[in-house]
Amino acid sequence: MVQDLEKIKILREKVIMVHQTIYEVGEYSSRHIKGTKAALMAMGICQDHNAEPLDRFTEEQRDKIKKYVAQFNYKNEYNEVH
């Protein structure tokens, strides 16, 4: 039980970090979708193209997301962008 609580604490901190970084880029509610897609692209998982009417983030915004993702120490075990 104590181990579970410690894991919960660590995961909660990670969720808060994502919310305070990736989800703060952009100004509209679409920033959550666009931020998620840009983060996945920065991690090498997929492209960041969105369905209309959404556009992808600007290059400046994508660079900001890349910096945030780098702080998370994420390692892509697949090394492929689909």
Short account of what is shown:
The protein is mainly α and 82 residues long. Helix content is 54%, strand content 0%.
Task: Report on this structure.
The chain is mainly alpha-helical and 82 residues long. The mean pLDDT is 87. The chain has three helices and no strands. Helices cover 54% and strands 0% of the residues. The chain is elongated. The longest helix is centred in the N-terminal third of the chain and has 19 residues.
What features would you highlight for this structure?
mainly alpha, 82 residues
Helix residue percentage: 40-55%
Which sheet architecture does the biggest sheet show? none
The computed structural class is mainly alpha
Order of helices and strands: HHH
Averaging pLDDT over every residue, what do you get?
A: 87
Low-confidence stretches: none
Molecular shape: elongated
* Termini Cα gap: 39 Å
Q: Helical region count?
A: 3
Beta-strand content: under 5%
* Assembly level: single chain
Secondary structure blueprint with pairings:
Blueprint: H1 2-20, H2 31-42, H3 59-71
Helix pairs in contact: 2-3
